[in-house]
Specification:
single chain, alpha/beta, 5-stranded parallel β-sheet, 17 helices
């Protein structure tokens, strides 16, 4: 290219050759080397967004039966929830392939004008029942990026806290900043019940961590192009943001929804009215406070709890998880692929010691966790407390095997 004429300046930024900048002349305008670089970056960014919209990474979608069998290896119990999740996840990722030309049949061609909508999932259950584990296991099976976000940290734009777009940033980081991969990932939003309105009546005051957050989440749940600050925090006009589509991201929301069962009971006419004896009142309370089946929960119950109707409508797949029993907790200790007992057995195997537990010891550990009302999460706390002395002595011990009995657990935990 011929060198530029002496003394001309850039038509965009005003810099001239007198400033030591190379300026490329044009028929009606000139441009300097710095503005060329900026334009090149803009074109690359726009192309990356366009490519991310068109490219559909191949995902081998397993059958619902295969998904459930995989979940059985990591999650104990909750058969109905496993079936509901397996169907929902299968349909979601089959939906992503609908425009990829993978379904060549005359029957499928009849539905060219039909667009399958996304089905996000809402899991309701007490703490420690396995809601997060379900989402993590699904992401592991499908080999897609997975991120966990806490709804309680998100606030409405303009207030202290995190923007809802930061939820997408977690997924993008899990995908090593690969936008294409992130756009086919799974996001689990925990504590979603904590963003419920405080009352059923709309308040004139701002509810920056409640209804306002629900409104902000609507677009990304349904599907939109979000602009994410690459380093998190609040967005500002001068900041470069990453464009990311949420149309194909599967959102799984979870929460305990304490008190939701009472709304269901009232709607079904099971609320006790008038004076009843204390024993009868206790029995009635247990019935009302027991976790209700998924098919008993109606959208109106969630609206009365504090979720806005539009938000409920974007979570069409609903499943309620029951509280884990002592038998379930005992099975969790030994049956899943990465169970706690096997973890401790591996640790002691490094010291050349074989570790075993009696069945009664496992049930005692499960029973102690039940009393602490922390679900499966409480198992690790109990095991850590019980195994501390054993792990402390193991490297210096000459024992070749250790057998944990019911009495050993009771004596140790009872002394703590």
């Amino acid at each position: 290219m011929a060198p530029s004429t002496k003394g001309i300046s850039c038509s965009f930024c005003g810099k001239s050759e007198a400033d030591g900048v190379m300026v490329i002349p044009g028929p009606q305008a000139n441009i300097c080397e710095f503005c060329v670089e900026i334009c090149h970056e803009i074109v690359q960014e726009e192309n990356s967004v366009a490519n991310s919209t068109n490219e559909i990474p191949k995902i081998d979608v397993p059958a619902p039966i295969e998904i459930k069998e995989f979940l059985d290896q990591y999650v104990i119990g909750h058969a109905d929830t496993k079936k509901a999740l397996s169907v929902a996840v299968h349909n979601h990722y089959k939906r992503l392939q609908q425009n990829g030309g993978q379904f060549d049949s005359e029957l499928y061609d009849e539905f060219d004008d039909v667009e399958i909508e996304k089905s996000n999932i809402l899991l309701i259950g007490p703490t420690g029942c396995g809601k997060t584990l379900f989402a993590r296991s699904l992401a592991k099976m499908l080999d897609v990026p997975f991120a966990i976000a806490d709804a309680t940290t998100v606030t409405e734009a303009g207030y202290v806290g995190e923007d809802v777009e930061n939820i997408l940033l977690y997924l993008l980081q899990a995908a090593d900043m690969d936008v294409n991969k992130a756009q086919r990932g799974i996001i689990y939003i925990d504590e979603i019940d904590k963003v419920a309105r405080k009352t059923e009546n709309v308040s004139v005051t701002r509810d920056v961590s409640g209804e306002g957050v629900q409104q902000a989440l609507l677009k990304i749940l349904e599907g939109s192009v979000a602009h994410i600050p690459p380093k998190g925090g609040r967005k500002h006009p001068q900041q470069e943001n990453i464009a990311m589509r949420t149309h194909d991201i599967l959102f799984i929301c979870g929460g305990a929804f304490v008190g939701l069962d009472s709304y269901v009971a009232q709607r079904q006419g099971r609320k006790a009215i008038g004076y009843i004896g204390s024993e009868e009142s206790s029995d009635q309370s247990k019935k009302i406070n027991s976790l209700i089946p998924s098919d008993s929960i109606q959208p109106e119950d969630l609206v009365r709890f504090g979720l806005i109707p539009e938000f409920v409508g974007r979570l069409p797949v609903l499943s309620a998880l029951s509280e884990l029993t002592e038998e379930d907790l005992a099975r969790i200790l030994v049956e899943p692929n990465n169970c706690l007992v096997r973890q401790y057995q591996k640790l002691l195997a490094m010291e050349g010691i074989k570790l075993t537990f009696t069945k009664q010891a496992l049930h005692t550990i499960a029973g102690i966790s039940m009393k602490r009302k922390s679900g499966a999460r409480g198992l690790r706390a109990v095991m850590e407390a019980f195994m501390m002395d054993i792990m402390y002595d193991a490297p210096s011990s000459t024992k070749k095997s250790i057998r944990i009995t019911d009495k050993m657990v009771k004596d140790t935990i009872g002394a703590l």
